[in-house]
Design brief:
With 669 residues, the protein is mostly helical. The chain contains 29 helices and ten strands. The strands form three sheets. The protein has a five-stranded parallel sheet, with helices on both faces. The protein has a three-stranded antiparallel sheet with strand order 8-10-9. Helix 5 links the parallel strand 3 and strand 4.
Length: 669
């Protein structure tokens, strides 16, 4: 005998064929069809408007179906027969599937009925094999046990024949295959007739399921998450105003839950069960990372950890190890190369393991492509598993490999950027890598500092502060510099101490905090001289000259440049020598010593020419033109400026070329 089910509005809907847990079926002959067992859609269902529209559109019967003439929402048709909802544990896949199924039944789209089964794909004790599921569906379709074919292939053929018969007699049917773990588990259950529709939910992306349209389901938007808690509390207790009274606490609570529907349902249940507890009190209890997962459980039925446990249990040994060690990465996301360093695996193998973890939604895709990230609660779960399953020596080795990776990769990126700049080009890949990894690199510094790794902290701080300086991220860069100076003071390496002091001074110089930069350079200079490091001494003197000049202390600046010049010459650093001569000339000119300035400019010009340094050559010609113009030698000034303009154009510096053009125009006038 056919039964009916009620939709969310209380109206009687079409027939529903239900199959629940196998042990709950006690069939006797004759066997009726079971047509009223689609589980109810959660009344707290909130948000998901776009996903619901997409899924509902995929369920709409095709042209020619008896249900196609029934009143339907204004949704575009789609030919796809199978819709697969995929996402991490607790993200609300089943709730969305049930809501869409009820709406479709209410619209009259499935007069042939609805088959539903929870395949328990991630519970090894309750896992429903395809042959068992087919038998359950046959019983639900009214086939007596004694008429079951003896082989799985025979039962499968009969199942599809029964569905084809229902399509011909009654119309399309909907098959909902909930909580599947693999294509092998659901593939045999697909109807043979294209008239029917199928919805599959899975924690794994079933990319090989025939005819499937994949719908990735993420966490709720913050506003939707808050609305879910508020809606649940009002339904449980109509006079409950806590969510309205504490909107800031609700917002913080949803963030601590990572906007994961299962976690939100747990905290809503906790609040509903204890009307005396404020939202703020529960939020405070969840702030402790060490106990948050334990707090996110309610009774024996709702537990975030239990849901994650089922997914974790299906991982291979190598996948589980990768999952655990990823939690050591200090930043929000991790690259394939960093993951390979953590595990000690080759990059291709690491990429394969990360792909497997993405497929089962234990990690999420990061940005850009190739990076992955954790949901906040899954990261806590991974950390817990790491503490339980990894020994201290293994963790220490993984941290060392990760830190070495970040140090070496940052050094490589900065060297590539500098080399490209010297060739008047740009290395976009290196720039993008540093920009993507900036948070990881800064976090890696803290990790290295905690683990006492000077071989990583100081070289990495050098490159990171340099990059942040170029990005003009002053606050972050200064934090890195301070960390390096503080850490360098704890080690006996005076060269590293000098470098940390110089880097901070150089950062402040570019930040134009000249008064703070100068004493740091002076301290670094003392250390370089004590070490006999002529390169460090010369570079520091040159920087001190620039800072003094910017402070208007021209005589002091000239003294620093003059002291640096013979050091650079002795080191055969011709480019630094040319730069120092140029700065000596500029400083002399600022003091009115035009003759000395002219001599220094001419010496710098010769070096720039031999080096092929077009920008230095152009800039020096421009300044020589200024001297000539000041001396009332317009023809000489014109010659210098015309050559400078040509050089700027060759260097593809149009603004500089335009500036010189304006100088020439003024000269003509």
């Amino acid at each position: 005998m056919n039964q009916s089910s009620n939709d969310l509005s209380g109206n009687v809907t079409g027939p529903v064929v239900q199959a629940g847990h196998v042990g709950q079926l006690h069939l006797t002959h004759p066997v009726p069809t079971a047509l009223a067992g689609l589980p109810p859609a959660p009344p707290e269902f909130t948000g998901r408007e776009e996903a619901l529209r997409t899924l509902t559109a995929a369920l709409r019967p095709g042209p020619g179906s008896p249900a196609a003439t029934a009143p339907t929402p204004q949704i575009a048709a789609t030919p796809l027969a199978v819709s697969t909802l995929v996402g991490t544990a607790g993200v609300g896949k089943t709730a969305l599937a049930l809501r869409a199924a009820h709406d479709a039944v209410a619209a009259g789209w499935f007069p042939g009925g609805v088959l539903f089964i929870n395949l328990q794909g991630y519970d090894e004790n309750r896992y429903v094999r395809p042959d068992i599921a087919v038998s359950v569906f046959l019983s639900a379709l009214g086939v007596p046990d004694e008429l079951f074919p003896p082989t799985f292939e025979g039962r499968l053929s009969l199942y599809r024949s029964k569905l084809a018969e229902r399509a011909a007699r009654h119309g399309a049917a909907l098959v909902v295959l909930d909580n599947a773990s693999s294509t092998d588990q659901v593939g045999p259950l697909l109807p043979g007739s294209p008239a029917h529709r199928v919805v599959v939910t899975s924690r794994r992306t079933l990319g090989d399921l025939p005819g499937s349209r994949i719908l990735d389901l993420g966490v709720l938007a913050p506003a939707e998450a808050a609305a879910l808690i508020s809606r649940t509390l009002r339904m449980r207790r109509p006079d409950d105003t806590r969510a309205l009274d504490e909107p800031d606490a609700v917002r913080d609570l949803t963030a601590l839950c990572g906007h994961l529907p299962l976690a939100l349902a747990v905290v809503a249940s906790i609040l509903a069960g204890d009307p005396e507890q404020s939202v703020g009190e529960l939020t405070a209890a969840l702030r402790d990372r060490a106990t948050r997962l334990e707090e996110l459980s309610y009774g024996d039925r709702k537990s975030v950890t239990a849901a994650f446990d089922l997914s974790y249990a299906r991982l291979t040994t190598d996948e589980a190890r990768m999952f655990r060690l990823l939690s050591l990465n200090p930043g929000q996301q991790v690259s394939v190369e960093a993951a390979a360093a953590l595990t000690g695996e080759p990059v291709p193998r690491a990429r394969k393991l990360l792909r497997a973890l993405r497929d089962v939604h234990m990690v999420e895709p990061g940005k850009p492509r190739g990076w992955v990230r954790f949901h906040d609660l899954l990261r806590l779960f991974a950390e817990r598993r790491r503490h339980e399953e990894e020994d201290a020596a293994g963790v220490a080795a993984a941290v060392d490999r990760l830190l070495a990776h970040y140090r070496d990769a940052a050094r490589d990126a900065t060297e590539r950027i500098v080399a490209a700049a010297r060739a008047r080009g740009r290395d976009d890949a290196a720039e993008d890598w540093l920009d993507t990894e900036r948070l990881n690199l800064r976090s890696a510094l803290h990790l290295a500092q905690r683990h006492g790794r000077p071989a990583v902290v100081l070289p990495l701080a050098h490159d990171v502060s340099w990059f942040l300086r170029r990005q003009q991220d002053w606050d972050a860069g200064l934090e890195v510099c301070d960390m390096a100076v503080e850490f360098a003071g704890t080690v006996a390496d005076r060269a590293q101490q000098a470098l940390a002091l110089y880097d901070k001074g150089d950062f402040l110089k570019h930040k134009q905090d000249f008064d703070q930069a100068l004493p740091l350079f002076a301290e670094a200079l003392d250390r370089y001289r004590a070490l006999g490091d002529r390169t460090g001494e010369a570079r520091t003197l040159h920087s001190m000259g620039t800072v003094a000049r910017r402070l208007g202390r021209y005589a002091e600046a000239e003294g620093h440049y003059a002291a640096a010049l013979p050091l650079f010459r002795a080191l055969d650093d011709h480019q630094a020598t040319a730069h120092t001569l140029f700065n000596l000339a500029f400083t002399a000119r600022l003091q009115g010593s035009n003759a000395a300035a002219h001599d220094h400019y001419r010496s710098a010009l010769g070096l720039y020419h031999r080096l092929g340094h077009t920008v230095g050559w152009a800039r020096t010609l421009q300044h020589l033109g200024h001297l000539a113009a000041a001396a009332n030698r317009p023809a000489e000034a014109r010659s210098y400026w015309e050559r400078a303009r040509t050089a700027y154009e060759e260097a593809e510096l149009p603004l500089a070329a335009e500036e010189v053009t304006e100088l020439l125009g003024g000269l003509t006038a």
